[in-house]
Design brief:
Jelly Rolls, five-stranded antiparallel beta sheet, 3 helices, elongated, binds zinc ion
Length: about 130
């Protein structure tokens, strides 16, 4: 399944746990895995704290301090910082589905990570059922 996400800032973390949850419910799969894949080179996906919104702000702030926008990069497009951050966060997350629910820690959320927005983005979600 393919989902569209419209980001509104140059850089932001968007909680997409609800989208993944909906995909699980719609699939009817009780036990299996959900794979979330981001098909972009300047955006990624990560799982982290969903309770205090300052946590993802701190992650972004730390990434920006470590990988500033201008740092003598060679890439002519001028967005190497975004490529680096996307690689660090990763392109996919996998979550176990148990009894029709995402089996995640209570404080965890799945975040789409925009590093070169705002843009129209996509997320691919694959729900797979256990064979057993
Ligand atoms: Zn680029």
């Amino acid at each position: 399944m393919e989902y569209s996400i419209k980001t509104s800032k140059p850089q932001e973390f968007i909680n997409i746990t609800g989208i993944v949850n909906k995909a699980v419910k719609e699939s009817g799969v009780r036990d299996g895995i959900a794979i979330v894949f981001v098909p972009h080179t300047t955006a990624g996906v990560t799982i982290n704290e969903n309770s205090d919104p300052d946590v993802v702000k701190d992650i972004l702030s730390a990434l920006n301090k470590t990988y500033p926008e201008n740092n003598g990069y060679l890439h002519i497009e001028g967005n190497s910082h975004a490529h680096i951050k996307a690689s660090l966060m990763g392109n996919s997350s996998t979550v176990i589905i148990e009894n029709g629910e995402l089996k995640m820690g209570i404080w965890q959320g799945i975040y789409f990570c925009e590093f070169d927005g705002p843009r129209n983005r996509k997320v691919y979600i694959k729900i797979m059922k256990d064979n057993a």
